[in-house]
Amino acid sequence: MSLLQVRGLTKRFGGLTALFRCDLEVQPGEVHALIGPNGAGKTTLINLVAGALQPTEGRILFDGLDVTRTPPHERALLGIGRTFQITNLFGHDTVLDNLALAVQARSGSPFRFWYPVHRERWIFEEARRFAERVGLLDRLGVQAAALSHGEQRQLEVGVALAGRPKLLLLDEPTSGMSQEESHRMVDLIRSLRGEVAILLVEHDMDVVFRVADRITVLVEGRVLASGTPGEVRTNPDVHRAYLGEAEGRRLMRRGRPRLPEGRPALLRVEGLKTFYGASQVLFGIDLQVPAGSVVTLLGRNGMGKTTTVRSILGLVPPRAGRIVFQGRNVAGWPPERIAALGIALVPEGRQIFPNLTVRENLIAFGANRSGRDDPWQLDRVLHLFPRLRARLGHLGCQLSGGEQQMLAIGRALMTNPHLLILDEATEGLAPALREEIWGCLQTLSEGGQTILLIDKYVDRLLDLAHYHFILERGRVVWEGPSEALRADPTLWQRYLSV
Amino acid sequence: MASTRRTAIAPDFARRPSAVPEAMPTLRHRTGLLLLLAGFILFPLVAQTWRLEFYLGLLTRALILALAASGLNLALGYGGLLSFGHATYFGLGAYTVAVLAREGVRSAWVVWPVGVLLVALVALGVGSVSLRTRGLSFIMITLAFAQMFYYGVISFKQYGGEDGLRALRTDFGVSLGDVGVYYLSLACLVLCLALLWRIVHARFGRALRATRDNESRAAAVGFPVYSIRLAAFVLSGAITGLAGVLMVHHTQYASPGMLGWPQSGHLMLMVILGGVGNFWGGVLGAFAMVALEEVFHSVTIHWQMGVGLVLLATVLLAPRGIAGILEGRPR
To answer: Is this structure's pTM higher than 0.95?
Structure first.
């Protein structure tokens, strides 16, 4: 008998149908991957199964029980554990306490008012075992919020596992992870096979094909195909809709023309030093962004890329160094003054306004900060991202991840910045959509837009960008044009891949 | 780390402290606490000889407010439930005593349980509706309920209406003097603090903090968020209600102002001053507030201004309150 049966599940958000008559079965012990382009309804399906959302129509059966109307905490106790797409932990608590809370939650009533938890030793011993399982045994006493992104993702899985689920819902467990962390996650998922059924949402096809027993493909809220990896891989519909599209949409030509020499630097950073509290993150960054160029910041996670960007924007005031934008040293200026000079950020995690509509998100920031003759306005942005046109009246929180990303870029463009900064703008996007975003950046660049990029798909950036800076532990360890980076694979191994 | 976690009920200050569950007190703490308790027990004995009777009343008031604020702290600090209506429970506790006394019921063995139970029932009603909302709505709905009870009490002309109600002290078989009320308040505070100490360190307290720190995650690991919050809300209200019962023994007077929103704000300010979500936050805040009021009162008729400035300084300079200052650097 199937562990999970989803029958004719439909979910509408206002006028938007996120999921339509979806059927899905997960067998005990199997790893079942859920793939599909952004906005296909994958996270919606996870939320419906977990109980965080209520379906408009349809039924959900778990372990023979109809749980369609069961509240989330009861589903958790029945054996549905989950992770969240965006890390969602008890941030102030230590790793051990996060896990202990999960053990406590499933091991008896919370309405015990007298006996101290810390005397229930076994809870913490069991929590330790789960820490060991997800590779966090040496981080037990660290606050969850202080963990690296990859470790937080591991802890997410650990907390879900500590509930001893029969079914584990994993929503993009490897998102934002380095190669090595991602490998470890794959190993972990594989080690769980047979022990617990897993429903996995994942964009990284390498991961999917390495761990999945079965794959279901969702496109625009409908199940397009379901079967073994072999069946799905060779399914022509799937290819057209999802997998093959990435290859088919190579919008960029190989090799960019070199930027003419001697362009003035729009942005120049000299000796930038930044601290978070007492810990130093940047140790004297030097970089230049010539006007009209596309420049990247490369490096592994936690090397200071985002901090560099945040320092440039004044979101973290630098302790030392100069940030010269259009001839003015803006180091120490408040962020709103720096932004007003014409620097726009597409932040990591998008950070669109959830309670504003798409239209409001866009027009609220309309300005012509660079004084262009042909400024970006609502219509032009919608032309660039036709998908947003159909969503104009929807709230930011009702958009899929990909649409949110488009909106974040559109919002930045609406300010008509001199310099557009994108921090992991393709994070968590399906391959086809990544290409779409890069295609847009290419178009923007050809129109003369200066862009500073953080992204982890180095091979694609080689085509798109002119110049690169590689950061390691808060220092620039290499800089050069695309050709030089392409020509030197050792650089990749040393600083980028793990 | 980007986070689109669901809006918690409390603003940020309510969930900052007590990241790590407080450990059991060390021996040094225990000795200190016992010495302090001994001081409180001995005080009335020396008060008369050293002509400190005036301070007996002040201390009684501080003890009672400490109890009320500690009750609120369970909801506000540990649950992140920003209730702007705890005066309701304080005032209803007081009015139960006063009204029953007016009706001729003066046995403490009847009045006290009735008072606390009644308040708990009201908190159950208010909480079961309010806790379906989040954020600003929660604050406003608790305030709305509180105003409802405030005007409700005023409308009972036979119980004094806006003038309030004089109340005789209840009878434990022996009649209570000022010293008796002092000891009674001290006993109630100590017992309730002991109870609270066990609660916040028991499974319930851990679960409650989990719902405060991250509601969606708490639900996803299997905590019944709503029921946990409701239980905390009722307990919190009942303790504050007990403080109300004590207060009417101290002042021998129940006034509608005890149910008003300034009273709710006053209790919240005590918790913030003492340290939101710190075990001793309510106690420290209440004693500090009573002391501040007394000091500024003796200096100027604009004493509220002085108290306000100190509060402002606390929030700006010591967001973890007095408890935060005493504990030193954040862990």
So the answer is: no
